[in-house]
Amino acid sequence: MLFMVQMQVNIPASLDKNIADALKKEEKEMSQKLQREGKWRDLWRVVGQYANVSIFNVSGNEELHQLLISLPLYPYMTVSVTPLTQHPSAIAQVE
Amino acid sequence: MLFMVQMQVNIPASLDKNIADALKKEEKEMSQKLQREGKWRDLWRVVGQYANVSIFNVSGNEELHQLLISLPLYPYMTVSVTPLTQHPSAIAQVE
Amino acid sequence: MLFMVQMQVNIPASLDKNIADALKKEEKEMSQKLQREGKWRDLWRVVGQYANVSIFNVSGNEELHQLLISLPLYPYMTVSVTPLTQHPSAIAQVE
Amino acid sequence: MLFMVQMQVNIPASLDKNIADALKKEEKEMSQKLQREGKWRDLWRVVGQYANVSIFNVSGNEELHQLLISLPLYPYMTVSVTPLTQHPSAIAQVE
Amino acid sequence: MLFMVQMQVNIPASLDKNIADALKKEEKEMSQKLQREGKWRDLWRVVGQYANVSIFNVSGNEELHQLLISLPLYPYMTVSVTPLTQHPSAIAQVE
Amino acid sequence: MLFMVQMQVNIPASLDKNIADALKKEEKEMSQKLQREGKWRDLWRVVGQYANVSIFNVSGNEELHQLLISLPLYPYMTVSVTPLTQHPSAIAQVE
Amino acid sequence: MLFMVQMQVNIPASLDKNIADALKKEEKEMSQKLQREGKWRDLWRVVGQYANVSIFNVSGNEELHQLLISLPLYPYMTVSVTPLTQHPSAIAQVE
Amino acid sequence: MLFMVQMQVNIPASLDKNIADALKKEEKEMSQKLQREGKWRDLWRVVGQYANVSIFNVSGNEELHQLLISLPLYPYMTVSVTPLTQHPSAIAQVE
Amino acid sequence: MLFMVQMQVNIPASLDKNIADALKKEEKEMSQKLQREGKWRDLWRVVGQYANVSIFNVSGNEELHQLLISLPLYPYMTVSVTPLTQHPSAIAQVE
Amino acid sequence: MLFMVQMQVNIPASLDKNIADALKKEEKEMSQKLQREGKWRDLWRVVGQYANVSIFNVSGNEELHQLLISLPLYPYMTVSVTPLTQHPSAIAQVE
């Protein structure tokens, strides 16, 4: 089941730089693990923003929620979720 | 070069049904041609909306604009365009 | 899988009253059929509005989309969809 | 009498972690007590958010207000309240 | 139980003037009847707007909804409802 | 002359609790004095909010402004002001 | 007593040109009469808009409302009203 | 050339009171100097707000910008600028 | 003096196609005449929109207003105007 | 390829003045280097704002993103990006 997730990251200047760097490193590792598993299907940077547009391919609402709240940078994100489905004109089939 | 395009379609009730059906048919054909060419990379329906989320892979701003305004249903669409680029945590390379 | 769906209905004054009445009757029948099947889990009127707050219990995004666009009054609705999941403090289990 | 209440929780990073944990524990206990009493009729997590959608079943405006402002996390919540009533197509009767 | 109701009236230019005048006359009669009964507790015009701020004193959500949708001009109104309750600094008691 | 005033109070967590309590006490006293004088005609709590809806009956813009900025909690309020006047369907006369 | 009034005019294309021209002529005459009386203290065009920023000097809310709703183009205006008062740094005294 | 400027002032509680008082004193002096020169043509307080509506009469964009950014309280203001011009119904000529 | 002007064009489907075509032709001619005169300094299409971003170089507010309202498509435009001035880091001097 | 970029700068009062000054100096140098290279094609100040309107001429989305995030003041900016293209009425050709 596909969802578009838009994440805007806002790390406060008051966060210790070492902690911030560690969180970003863990975020990258977890993100890449989820990409390799096919759950984080697409990940793009929005030009000019510390933000991304992502497509998740998960079993449903519960799995998506658990993935998102376990992201190391989740406490510093504003997240919006848009459920997607097959478009009648799409030649590819939604997994 | 990748762009997210969000299209909301609003066909007025006053449009003749035959004309509307013809436009939808042409829209589907053109959309599928662009998908086969790899320019309309992804096309998903937004759940509960007469709207889509799309990813276009084009040579740049000019090509994207010409593609969008040539869509048969373009006069009935509200369109928003978000330029995308490589995300440093993405394992796939933006084409 | 649960979704909150908010529907705002706006039937244009120009719609023939007999057609409007027939659509409302069909809408009611379809709504009640879906309620009896357990898919339209809750349906409440918003005070002072021609609008409702609904909870749908469906297999996923695709089923929800098909249900919503098949509603007789769908062409006259503004719809928003919010995916829901188990709350850690809830004593009831999300079906 | 039914009300939809939407709560967005935003605990500041500056709040002592022990205090925050104690507040969350009290919040959960109070929430479950109100659920068992039937006053907090439904409680769902919004996917990807530290937020919930809730349905309260109370005697009226005064009782709802007293319940909400007595929640341990209330000082950290943004709350919106939507009065609900019987929908003419609903097969269940609003209590 | 008190509710603030804000009504913005927008009668389309296409509505026959005789019908509009009849509706306004009926609206005024019904409004004054409800005021005499104490249910429409206060009614003020917003300066410069075809809009009002009203305070309703009703038994609850259901009665308020029935009153509002029975107003002759209701089909031409945008309505918002705000539940009110006793303020701890108010010297008057909410009825 | 009547005005609707909506006040949203937001006392920062960093304000000393004794100072906050003293301000709230003074606010209550001043509010009740103005109510007894008939200048703060109505004061209601918005359900679920640290906010009120108020009706002021004052000699004009200048008196209203002086009253509002002299409130002890004014520095912590977001205020909106809506001028009101006689509604042609109201049975009570605006003072 | 001073009020800033912002008026956005939107005359529908469907209005007969002769009627529209007559309304504009009456609007101009009434506006200039009120300016000569000192009630419509200032009137400026917003650059690039069919809109104005105005300052009214009236006895209070009731007079302002009666003036505004008697403007010939009032049915085609979106109006917002901002009550003004003496600024402590102003060298001119508000009339 | 006329411009409407709207300034909302928000002095943070963390600013030293002596510094704040000195800034306000300088702001008042500079504001009154500009009023005497005819450049700050009008200055009004918005009722209930720490905000003003002002009319500036300057030689153009550059002079307006230099005046605004030189105001002592500028770092604590949210500013919006609306270019104005002669209204065809105005009896006064824009300087 | 420079201004950014953003124009969104919305020609209603009900406008006769010949009239619309004639207006577009006149708009193009007038736009190009103003560009050759150096008054309409820059004109760009917004990708995916029937809209433009423009830079005007004019003597002031009055000239800009007269130019904009004389555009043949002006009645079908939503216009916003942003006054610009020299940026301290710009190497080019604002004309 | 052209893009309009709007940057709003908000340097927190808590940032050390020497650091802020150093960042502004580096920002100016980098901005002028990019202007001389023709990549930052235009740079204007918005009147009354600590903000600019800029036109970038770059090879595409990726180059624009890298330029923007390398600006010394980027961490203190709110940025919006609008892709532009040739306007059919423009006499200049988009580079």
From TrEMBL, chains A, B, C, D, E, F, G, H, I, J:
Residue ranges occupied by any Muconolactone isomerase domain in the UniProt entry: 1-89
Keywords (A to Z) from UniProt: Aromatic hydrocarbons catabolism, Isomerase
Catalytic reaction annotation: (S)-muconolactone = (4,5-dihydro-5-oxofuran-2-yl)-acetate
InterPro entries assigned to the protein according to its UniProt record, in alphabetical order: Dimeric_a/b-barrel, MLI_dom, Muconolactone_d_Isoase
Enzyme class: isomerase
Pfam families: MIase
Pathway where it operates: Aromatic compound metabolism; beta-ketoadipate pathway; 5-oxo-4,5-dihydro-2-furylacetate from catechol: step 3/3
GO molecular function terms noted in the UniProt entry: muconolactone delta-isomerase activity
EC number: 5.3.3.4
Family to which this protein belongs: Belongs to the muconolactone Delta-isomerase family.
Subunit structure: Homodecamer.
Protein name per the record: Muconolactone Delta-isomerase
